[in-house]
Amino acid sequence: MSLRLTRRAGLLGSLAAPFVARTAFAQTETIRIGTLTPLTGAGGAYGPAMVKSIRAVVEKVNANGGVLGRQVEIISEDDETNPDAGVRAARKLIDVNKVVAILGTWASAVTTAVAPLCWENKVMLFTVSGGDGITRLPHQGYIIRTQPDSALQAERSGKFMLDQGAKRIAALSAQTPFAASTYATQSRVVAAGGGMSVGDIIYDATKTSFRTEVDQILKLNPDTLFLNSYQPDLAVLLRDLYRAGFEGKRFTLGYAANDKLLASVPQEVTEGLISYAPSPDLDSPAFKQVQAVIGANPDPYSCQTFDHASLAILAIAKAGTASGPAIHDAVRAVGNPAGQPVSDILEGLKLIAAGREVNYSGASGPCKFTAIGDISGCKFRFDKVEKGQNKLIELS
Amino acid sequence: MPAIGFTAIYAVLRFPNFAIASHMTIGAMAGVLANTELGVPASVALLAAFLAAGIVGVASDMLVLRRLRPSGPLTTAIGAAAMGIVLENIVRFAFGNDPRGFDLPVLRDLRFRIPDLGVLRIGPQQVEAALASLIAMSILFAFLAFTRSGRMMRAVADNPTLAALKGIDAQSVARRVNFVGMGLAGFGGMLIGLDTSVDPVVGARVVLPVFAASVVGGLGSIPGAVAGAFVIGIGEEMSTLVLDPSYRTAVGFLAILLVLTLRPRGLLGERAL
Asked: Which of B105, B197, B249 sits opposite A264 (nearest CB)?
């Protein structure tokens, strides 16, 4: 028995030997970066494009001689939009492939599950998940997130309403985990800007009529309403507001005021509705590069992973070594406001090689991060409905 | 309306037909298609909603639920729930998941200023919907009271054995009650769709209050379903005078608890069809 085991182990060992040797050889040669995106499952529509835009950055770098004289190798894994599968894939990327960074986790549940593996192994994690709790994990700086959390979104929407002349703002919100915190943040911003938050009502989104809620909120005499809704309940709310004769401004979220809503509700009811959504930086040269790879209308996530790859590689160049801690230490330094503005990876690498400071801003936005790894600002698009169509009125 | 359909089917066939939600959806979808694709006015579309849901109701009963009925009400109820999921997904597969709206203008409310009290607001479309319900209900009561089919249904609901002895064909009554009951569900589904938008889950979203109204009124009693719907609807609205609107739904269910504790057979008792 013991003999057979030994023989089998020996056989396996000898079979594996060439791979071990190759791995060892490769580690001195290439810098390994993992992508962990949802290629299947609920996020399956986004994952493939996210990887494609990462590969575009890396191929460009490799064609130009790599970084620190070494080629960059991408190892792509599927998280199946499932925390279990995500953890298995992350273990493989960290333990077997020895990657220095993992890019592109999408679902908040996956990111939350994978994050401890990353910070314990000192591997940098770049994510597009929006869940508020993620950057509050004890990650010691090993998480960078390019998606704005709901607090940042609330702040921007509050400012925008003030800019549009709102004085008395009230909110009607569906019951969500972020309804109360969004209103609280907006109220703070609005009060600081000289406006007033007159009240909020949280409603049950499954109701078929919101006449009562509308009556109660209009009693507060607001000139502007913030509708923190999803698409089905927004369709009902807009009708009820119209019937009640509300003439003030109405703001809502981009994912609620989508084309499907506009197609199913009469034009006179949606006219003038303003919505906002985090947006890639449509004017950025980096965005045009993403367009060239993905198509005319890239989703926000492939813009963000494009920046993940650029930031990781620039940070490696800046630090002078390719490791998780090196990226951890240098990722904010490549967005130095005093440095030369760049949005192209090769230009950035050239400047860093010349010993210059760089200020990277990418396809998803300025890419500046707070101490806990949240993006400190990004572009938002504001659309206004005119004759049943969303028209971009501001990108800022 | 759907509560009446639900309770009528329960009265005659003695099982809760949980497929009612998908029949509301089918009615609403038929109504919206008739209105937007064929360009018929809302009143005609309501008829289409009634017919489509009624026909599907009869078909699903004949093909599936009838075979389950001998195995007892619980089996049939579970079968009906499954049937509902299947029907909902057939609608989704055929017409897509996107919301559709009726091709009707949304009218501003009429406002009346009442001295010392403030402004009274009345929605013309809600008045129309209420009138449509009232007309449908009058027709239903006349149908039950004066027609042969109606009398047969009442007879079976009252005493199935006696009705069978008198030569009333149970299958034929089952078909008729399903047609009327599910037709009413479709009718109600479209009235809801008029105010909101129509997608495959429009029925599932509102089905809980429908059950609640039937239970409060007394399962199997049509006037009870009407009374139950009023109790729950008015109760929920009045509660907002003292409570936050987020608790509106809870108030409806509190009404169920109260009614069932004080009067376990429902407001009007069962079997008062």
From this structure: B197
